[in-house]
Design brief:
The protein is α+β, with helices and mostly antiparallel strands and 255 residues long. Helix content is 18%, strand content 29%. The chain is built from five helices and 15 strands. It is globular and about 70 Å long.
Length: 255
C-alpha cells in the first residue's frame, strides 16, 4: 500500500466518511507519523486533527482523519466502499470496532467522467502542455495501463487556483495575495506521480544506461536514481561524434 502526500485530492469530504472508529494514538501507531497535523482549532471541530492518506494496489484511495480531542477516526474512501476500506485498514495494522456508514445513493459511486474538487492532468514526456485530462485518478491509471505512455500526472483544483488551494492548508510560504508572484504561482505541494510506459514509479527505481559498440558487445555505462538524470546522460552520449547504440533500462523490481 502506498502512502500519499498532502494535501490529498479526494472527491469526498470528512462529512461523507464511510467508516468511523474510536482510537488512541497507540491504536494508530502502525500508521507511523501523520502526513499532516492541523493545529488551528478555528479550522477544526476543536483541538488537533491528524491526517494519513493511502492508496491500495487496486486503486482504493483512503484519507484517515483522527480528531484527537474526541478520540475518533473518520475514514473517507474513493470509491466510497466501506468493506474495502475496512479491509485496507486491517492491512495497515489497525484493529478496532469499525462502524460502516453508507453514503446516500446520489453519492456512491461517482459516475464515470464526473469530477468533484479536482481534475487530473497528464503531461506526456516531451510535451509542452497537458495531453489528457481525467475526472478521477483511477481512470487515469486505467488509461495509462492501456496506452503505456510515459509522463507526469498531477491534480488541479476546480473553481480555484493552485495558490488558493495551497493557501488553505498553509504548509509552505506563499507570495503575498494580489502580487505578480501569486498570479504566476503554479504550486509546489500536493500529489504528483511519474509514469514510465504506463507503470507508476515509486521514486526508488534505478535506471541503467547501456551501450553497444561497433562489434555488437553490450556494456552497462552507469546507474542513475533519477530517470531525468539518466535521460540527460543518454542525450549527451547520443550527441557524440562517434555514433554507437545507447539505451536506458529500468532495473528489475520497479512497480
Amino acid at each position: 500500500m502506498r502512502r500519499l502526500t498532502f494535501p490529498t485530492v479526494m472527491p469526498y469530504g470528512e462529512c461523507e466518511a464511510v467508516v468511523w472508529f474510536p482510537a488512541t494514538r497507540d491504536v494508530l501507531s502502525s500508521l507511523g507519523e501523520p502526513v499532516y497535523i492541523e493545529e488551528d482549532s478555528m479550522r477544526t471541530a476543536g483541538g488537533r486533527e491528524w491526517f494519513w492518506a493511502y492508496e491500495t494496489e487496486d486503486g482504493l484511495r483512503l484519507l484517515l482523519v483522527w480528531a484527537e480531542p474526541y478520540g475518533a477516526v473518520s475514514v473517507v474512501a474513493d470509491p466510497p466502499e466501506p468493506q474495502r476500506a475496512i479491509a485496507a485498514l486491517r492491512e495497515l495494522g489497525i484493529e478496532a470496532p469499525f462502524e460502516k456508514s453508507q453514503l446516500p445513493e446520489g453519492f456512491a459511486p461517482l459516475k464515470r467522467g464526473y469530477a468533484q474538487g479536482a481534475v487530473w492532468l497528464f503531461t506526456g514526456e516531451g510535451a509542452a502542455q497537458p495531453t489528457a485530462v481525467f475526472s478521477r485518478k483511477q481512470l487515469a491509471d486505467d488509461w495509462l495501463a492501456r496506452t503505456r505512455f510515459t509522463g507526469t500526472l498531477v491534480p488541479y483544483p476546480i473553481d480555484r487556483s493552485r495558490y488558493e488551494f495551497e493557501r488553505i492548508w498553509g504548509q509552505v510560504p506563499l507570495p503575498p495575495p494580489g502580487s505578480t508572484e501569486a498570479q504566476q504561482y503554479v504550486g509546489t505541494v500536493g500529489e504528483r506521480y511519474e509514469y514510465f510506459e504506463g507503470r507508476l514509479l515509486s521514486g526508488k527505481e534505478r535506471w541503467q544506461l547501456w551501450r553497444q559498440d561497433d562489434n555488437g558487445a553490450r556494456f552497462r555505462v552507469q546507474d542513475f536514481a533519477s530517470r531525468a538524470e539518466a535521460v540527460k546522460a543518454l542525450q549527451k552520449m547520443e550527441s557524440a561524434v562517434h555514433k554507437q547504440g545507447y539505451w536506458l533500462e529500468l532495473q528489475e523490481g520497479a512497480k
